């Protein structure tokens, strides 16, 4: 039996939640993994560690030295500035660059149909690196725009850096879900407090934390380029999500209250931008169905309520 050559994989950031699950899958497959971060957290056992501020191009080059990688997985590219540095530094150092993007690149969409990748063409997205991307409040308020412009930097003509941008649906599941979004609903249901939703509340696409780790691991071994949507089959409304949460809080009461856009709860949406996952499926990845894992995801995250 001929063994495949172990890949050299660099993971930038992402040492928690689905990032750590991705690293575990890479290691289990025999890949040699290096984690690059600012040094605030140690990498998983067995992974090499590089320390650098990815916003500092000179420091990043120094940390990398002469190293090259079969694949780079960038879990923490949020701005066009970061993308521009990464493109300059990693062109010629890797055969494949996988950027974790987001469903929020479609934040300006409002469609009754599932939204495909062509709805946001990175080549048509204007880039402005002079915006205050270093301001945490600005970045938080422009999360989707930062990701959209970062994709545009990787897609722009220039020295070749084969890239894929995985547009990740809303992630659920895991006892280590640090977002607090499911807990937001659980707290209100437990207390009988109203849950804020817009007047026209649209369903959305989701993905389990283990499924996105599986998908990213699969993507590492593929050769397609450009954006790809990653979402489980099926849509969930806020009401369905709350119903699943309420099943773990028998004494709770679910009450909804209509509010203005901008004041809504985490998983309620005034626009339709649920993602079409058919490109990934045609490329060979079989997604699961959200309703098959929803109860499991809620139980994992709200384990203290079981």
TrEMBL record:
> What domain of life does the native source organism fall in?
Bacteria
Q: Where is the NAD-dependent epimerase/dehydratase domain?
A: 9-222
Give the matching InterPro entries. Answer: Epimerase_deHydtase, Lipid_A_modif_metabolic_enz, NAD(P)-bd_dom_sf
Name of the protein in question: NAD-dependent epimerase/dehydratase family protein
Q: Which organism is it from?
A: Streptomyces hokutonensis
Upper classification of the source organism reads:
Bacteria, Bacillati, Actinomycetota, Actinomycetes, Kitasatosporales
């Amino acid at each position: 039996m001929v063994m495949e050559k172990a890949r050299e994989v660099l993971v930038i950031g992402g040492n928690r939640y689905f990032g750590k699950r991705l690293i575990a899958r890479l290691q289990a497959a025999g890949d040699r993994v290096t984690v690059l971060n600012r040094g605030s957290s140690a990498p998983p056992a067995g992974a090499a560690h590089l320390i650098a501020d990815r916003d500092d191009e000179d420091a990043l080059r120094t940390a990398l030295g002469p190293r090259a990688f079969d694949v780079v997985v960038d879990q923490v590219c949020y701005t066009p500035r970061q993308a521009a540095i990464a493109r300059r530094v990693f062109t010629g150092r890797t055969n494949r660059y996988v950027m974790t993007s987001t469903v929020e690149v479609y934040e300006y969409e409002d469609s009754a149909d599932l939204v495909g990748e062509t709805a946001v063409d990175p080549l048509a997205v204007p880039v402005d690196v002079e915006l205050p991307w270093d301001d945490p409040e600005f970045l938080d308020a422009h999360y989707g725009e930062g990701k959209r412009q970062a994709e545009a930097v990787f897609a722009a003509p220039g020295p070749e850096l084969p890239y894929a941008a995985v547009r990740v649906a809303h992630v659920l599941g895991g006892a280590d879900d640090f977002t607090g979004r499911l807990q937001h609903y659980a707290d209100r249901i437990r207390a009988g407090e109203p849950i804020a939703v817009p007047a026209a509340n649209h369903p959305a696409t989701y993905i389990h934390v283990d499924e996105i780790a599986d998908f990213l691991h699969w993507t590492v071994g593929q050769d397609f380029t450009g954006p790809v949507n990653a979402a489980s089959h099926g849509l969930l409304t806020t009401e369905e999500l709350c119903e699943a949460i309420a099943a773990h809080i028998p004494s709770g009461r679910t009450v909804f209250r209509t509010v203005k856009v901008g004041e809504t709860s985490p998983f309620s949406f005034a626009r339709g931008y649920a993602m079409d996952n058919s490109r990934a499926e045609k490329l060979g990845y079989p997604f699961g169905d959200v309703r098959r894992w929803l109860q499991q995801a809620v139980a994992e995250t709200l384990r203290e309520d079981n």
